[in-house]
Design a protein that fits this description.
Layout: H1 2-21, E1 26-41, E2 44-60, E3 65-76, E4 82-93, E5 99-115, E6 120-136, E7 140-150, E8 164-177
Antiparallel strand pairs: 1-2, 1-8, 2-3, 3-4, 4-5, 5-6, 6-7, 7-8
Length: 178
């Protein structure tokens, strides 16, 4: 029995080492990041936009499946005292080898909104669905996350439940592939 466990462990270690050793499977980079939250109150529509930077990272699990994430820090365009900090993580489905890439994604996000003048703070979490495209060179990748639609239930925390919300993000990133 001990020999069988040892053999299984050795095989798993061998396959894992080969997967980790493949070049171009991981990436780390920087991106621009924009979050837009729309609120509909009766017939009126209001839009709130935060913009900033993010650190991105990812790993290509297979040739058509990858995991990717962003750690972002944003400032509202209309109110510099309003900030949004958080992260998102997603599974991406689509080709991720060298050359042109495109993907659909499913994931989660978690963030904290702060308004420093009024000393307000809210936490938002939920799911996301999105898509984008990019290009992978041997050592560099360029990605445009065209849109990620978010569940917007948590954005209702400080307003009337009759208000309707929608939210989405977009980003452009450049990363180092290793």
């Amino acid at each position: 029995m001990k020999k069988a466990i040892f053999a299984i462990g050795l095989c798993m270690g061998t396959f894992t080492t080969q997967a980790i050793a493949e070049e171009g499977r991981s990436n780390i980079g920087i991106s621009t990041y924009t979050l837009v939250v729309n609120e509909k109150i009766g017939l009126a529509n209001y839009s709130y936009t935060w913009s900033g930077t993010a650190i991105t990272g990812g790993y290509d699990i297979t040739d058509t499946l990858a995991v990717n994430g962003s750690l972002y820090s944003l400032e509202e365009l209309a109110d510099s005292n309003s900030t949004m900090k958080g992260f998102d993580a997603s599974l991406r489905f689509g080709p991720n080898g060298l050359g042109f890439t495109y993907y659909g994604s499913l994931g989660l996000y978690s963030e904290t909104w702060k308004q420093s003048v009024r000393n307000l703070s809210e936490r938002h979490t939920g799911g996301l669905i999105g898509g984008g495209f990019g290009y992978n060179w041997k050592d560099v990748n360029l990605n445009w996350n065209v849109i990620s639609f978010r569940t917007a239930g948590d954005y209702k925390a400080s307003t009337s439940s009759a208000n309707k919300f929608s939210a989405g993000t977009g980003s452009i990133s450049v990363g180092y592939r290793f």
